[in-house]
Amino acid sequence: MIENAETLSVFLPAASGIALYTLGKASKNVEKYASWLGAMAAVAPVILIGSMIPDVIAKGVIRRVYPWIPSMGVTFGFQIDALSVTIAFIIALVSFLATVYAVGYTAHEHGHAGFFGNTLLFIGGMLGVVFSSNLLQFYVFWELMLIPSYFLIVFWGTPERAARIGFKYFIFTHVGAVCLLFGILTTFVLTHTFEIADIAHKMEGINPNVAIVIFTLMLFGFLVKMAVFPVHTWLPDAHAEAPTPISAMLSGVMVKCGAYAITRISLGVFLPSFKGVSTYLMALAVVTMVYGGLMAFAQTDVKRLFAYSSVSQMGYILFGLTTITVTGLAGGLFHILNHALCKALLFMSAGILMHQTKTRDLRQYGGLMNRMPMTAFVSVIGALTLAGTPPLSGFFSESMMFAGGIAPEIGVLQGQNFLTFIATVSAVITAAYYLWFVWRVFFGKLPDHLKDVREAPPVMWAPPLCLAVMAVVLGIYPQLCLNLISLAARLILGSGH
Amino acid sequence: MFTAPLDTLLAFSVLTPLIYLIGIKIGFRKLVDCWATLGFAFSLYLLYLMHENIREKVLVVTVANALLPVSSVFEIDALGFFMATLFIFIGLLTSFYSMRYMERDTRLAEYYILLLLMVAGMVGVVFAGDLLTLFIFWETMCISSYVLVAFRKERWEPVEAGLKYLIMSASGSVIVLFAMSLLYGIAGSLNFAYLRLAIARPPMNGWTVMAMALMVIGFGIKAAIAPLHTWLPDAHPAAPSSISAMLSGVVIKAGAYALMRSLLLFFAPELFNWQIVLAVIAVLTMTVGNLMALPQTDLKRLLAFSSIAQMGYVIFGVSLATSSGLTGALFHIMNHSIIKSLLFLCSGAFLYAVESRDLDELSGIGKKMKITGAMFTVGCLSIAGIPPLNGFQSELMVLLAAIGRGHQGAIWYFLSGLMLLNLLFSVAYYLRLIQTVIIREPTERSLKAKEAPVVMLLPMILLTALCVVAGIYPDPFISFSSNAAKAVLDIAQYVNAIVK
Predict the structure, then answer these.
(1) Which of A420, B107, B226, B414 could bridge across to A405 with cysteines, CB 3.0–4.6 Å?
(2) Distance CA B226, CA B289 (A)
(3) Based on the number of CB atoms within 10 Å of its own CB, is A213 exposed (0-12), middle (13-18) or buried (19 or more)?
(4) Which residues of A touch B478 (CB under 8 A)?
(5) Under a CB-based contact definition with an 8 Å cutoff, are residues A344 and A382 in contact?
């Protein structure tokens, strides 16, 4: 492991983001090369976090704690274990590829220094959330992730709607964050600690009714970020109107921070409370899956389709987490990876389509297979993965989740088993709208107004191609990441499960 | 005579007209501006030299008539030092900023006399060791501030606002005076230490309770607690922006100080049980402030309502009457001084550039005034309690202290929840401010704007840096506040310094 890799991976992007922004305002030269400088800075976390993986497999859990506010007993620490490293790695990787993609996508946009500066700050915020070892620091980064993404949406999003949608995004997420804060502060008052690792056993003596209130407040904050029905309404707006590389990051990795937080805090710390409500949460997950899928069917805008598909997919992930079995949780975590890869990929293809055809209306597309072979190829891989087609990686994660959901001690169509059955059926909806998307865009007759469309430059199709290759490799050989993932699932649920 | 920093402020104030004349004679009109800034800087330095004298002890300075218990004394503890530091520091920045901001005005000699005198009054209030001394400096502060609000007397708005402020605030002073006379009748002294010994012991006396209520009302008018806040949204926007920064940044804090000192010292919380009543008033204040801020279209008026809401958070911290609650309240006093001064100075820069405070006309001005716009954004995010900026840290401390009292009654959970809702609610209008100033397309008027001059930018840059530093590394700021909080709760030390 590279010395201080965890600290560097959080602060390097954040600091270079601020530097890029200020220097870009001061110097024309920096502004001119800002996009490549940004992409170069974004590669650092990938290398740093990659270097942690062997250590985590060898040593298990590594914690680094530094003093921050001694007068309040607050520390600044990093928790490096199988769970945080897995999620952090996928965040860093997808963000890096999205940044490279943005170099091509924003070539004709204004304010490169601002765009890439904010993007790097956003990456730093997400990695900070994942590595935080105490709740206060976690909250600070949670909000730090919101601010740059808000500015990215309002400054570089769809011009007419960006300000209103940015406002909605901010307020929704902030409502969740404030509930989270209330939960965190009450926890501190009861346990006198913010350290995530210490809370679980200090909560043991606490009245379960109080514990469930705290648990619910915090969970609400996470569910808003994760965009679970019925607090999902910000997602289709924000993800559709954000600039496309940012949509790829929002849908690809930012919403996963909500799933990570549920795994780390709701499952890891409040397991008894979680068990009490897991069936209701599972029902919510299934509703989200079906609702998101049906809404995706109705969309005519390519980015809104993917955004609703994200809602549906977050339902899958929540389903995996609510099974509270090692298989199901590992499946959920694996699906976080797969969805991060494929949704980022699909948003990038949507960006290419918009960039090359100047429209985002699905009804205007058709027969683009021969015009844009690369885009067509990667989109088909992405769509098939999320539709759960073997032998692509989505198939394995979905089957693990569904297997985890089946409880042998109760009847076939009772409670949890019934929900698992509905979830499995809803995979058909996912497959259907993805196949329809592929058909409408790439097959059929090429309309006249698209006769002159050409393939995008390599800087735009190379990043999604990398993601597609990874999806295929993980599908054929899932063991590559399953070691780490099942380690993470066992870490969270303890060996007794 | 009155301790070195206060003497300096008074001396500089008195000599200002002379310097103004000299400046005109030698053809350097900015001399008076430099003089006032120098006065603040010198005073701040002298105050800093005092910090050894008040560490873990109380400094007693006799002003007049050494015969206790009817003498006039200063009793300076860590709390007085804390507040005085804030007052003089913000005064220094304001005065520096005024060098350019006030250049289009005449009568600058009066302006600086009043500014120095107002700060001197505030410092005297926080140093005072008896009610008479406090009242004299209180009136010095009030009278200077009435005139400063109505400084641009050729327009109707400042004059009207100044008159309203005068009437309400003078009524407050009279009520305080009445409370003082009641207390004198009960205790036979106006000295804080003697009052404490006479009042804070059972059995309870109906007259003391009445004196307490009158003091809360009288000081509460200055601290703008609801429903006594109505003068503030008129007075603060009408004043020149540099003075708005002073009024919202520090002058209302003098009211909070007086409330804090009198409630904790004379009217001992364990005996008078004012905590829950004060907490309800605090929550009412923040709710009124936030609700009223939402529909405002005038930038400075919006900021004024936001000050009322922020005072609610401060009073909420005071109402806990615990060490952690007071630390949070004092830390928030400090942070709000920094942030609100920053925001008013930024709005002053906008006003200076385009002569408008209407939010519709100011749309997109941050695109032309990039540095001011960026600093304004930091200020808005900070006051909205977004981590890791300083406003978040102190709001967090107040909340934490309030939730910590939950085991004494579910009402504290309920009130903390209401405060949290208020925090959430306030984000909406701060976000609207950010959107208006830096995101919307510029209007014709704001297209004409030019970046503010360096002299105006420097104080704002310093305040912005403080917002970030106190957010990321709050420890020294928290220990400064917690020393002050400990001092205000250490009644024995305070009393023993006078009554041997």
Answers:
(1) A420
(2) 8
(3) middle
(4) 69, 71-72
(5) no
Q: What percent of chain A has pLDDT over 90?
A: 25
| Cα four-point dihedral sign A183, A187, A189, A192 | negative
Q: Which value does ipTM take for this structure?
A: 0.86
For all residues of chain A together, what is the average pLDDT? 87
| Chain B interface disruption, residue of A136, A189, A213, most B CBs within 10 A | A189
| Contact in structure between B212 and B180 (CB atoms under 8 Å) | no
Residue B269 confidence (pLDDT):
87
| H helical segments located in B27-52 | 31-49
Of A144, A170, A171, the CB nearest to B387: A144
Contact criterion met (CB < 8 Å) for B439 and A163 = yes
Inspect the interface and report whether the beta carbons of A144 and B396 lie closer than 8 Å: no
Domain assignment of residue B88, given as a range: 4-496
Nearest residue of chain A to residue B474 (CA atoms): A69
Tell which residue, A375, A130, A339, A126, has the closest CA to residue A248.
A339
Tokens, residue B126: 């926080």
Residue A52 touches chain B, beta carbons under 8 Å: no
Closest chain A C-alpha to B431 CA, distance in angstroms = 7
The predicted-structure confidence for A371-387, as pLDDT tens digits, reads as follows: 888 888 999 999 999 88
A163 contacts in chain B (CB < 8 Å): 435, 439-440
**Residue A74 phi/psi, 5° resolution?**
-105, 135
Residue B63 phi, psi (nearest 5) = -90, -50
Q: For testing the chain A interface, which of B326, B375, B386, B441 should be mutated: the one with the most A CBs within 10 Å?
A: B386
pLDDT at A497 over 60: no
- As a whole number of angstroms, the distance between CA B68 and CA B62 comes to 10
Please give the pLDDT value at position B72: 85
- The string of DSSP letters for A402-432 reads HHHH--TTS-TTSHHHHHHHHHHHHHHHHHH
Per-residue pLDDT of A33-84, as tens digits, reads 888 888 888 898 999 988 888 888 888 888 888 888 888 788 888 988 888 9
* B442 in contact with A, Cβ within 8 Å: no
Weakly modelled stretches of chain B, pLDDT under 70: 66, 68-69
- H or E stretch covering A202: helix A196-202
Domain spans of chain A, in order of start: 271-497
Total number of domains constituting chain B: 1
pLDDT at B66: 66
Residues in chain A closer than 8 A to B424 (CB atoms): 174-175, 178
Phi, psi of B60 (to 5 degrees): -110, 125
3-state per-residue secondary structure call for B302-357: HHHHHHHHHHHHHHHHHHHCCHHHHHHHHHHHHHHHHHHHHHHHHHHHHHHHHCCC
Residue B469 amino acid letter? V
C-alpha radius of gyration, chain A, whole number: 22
Chain B CB contacts of A114 under 8 Å are none
Spatial separation of the C-alpha atoms in residues B278 and B415, rounded to whole Å? 11
Per-residue tokens: B373 = 């716009």
pLDDT for A260 beyond 90: yes
Query: A163 — contact with chain B (CB < 8 Å)?
Result: yes
Taking one residue from A and the other from B, the number of pairs with CB-CB distance under 8 angstroms is: 66
**By C-alpha distance, which of A412, A430, A429 is closest to A421?**
A412
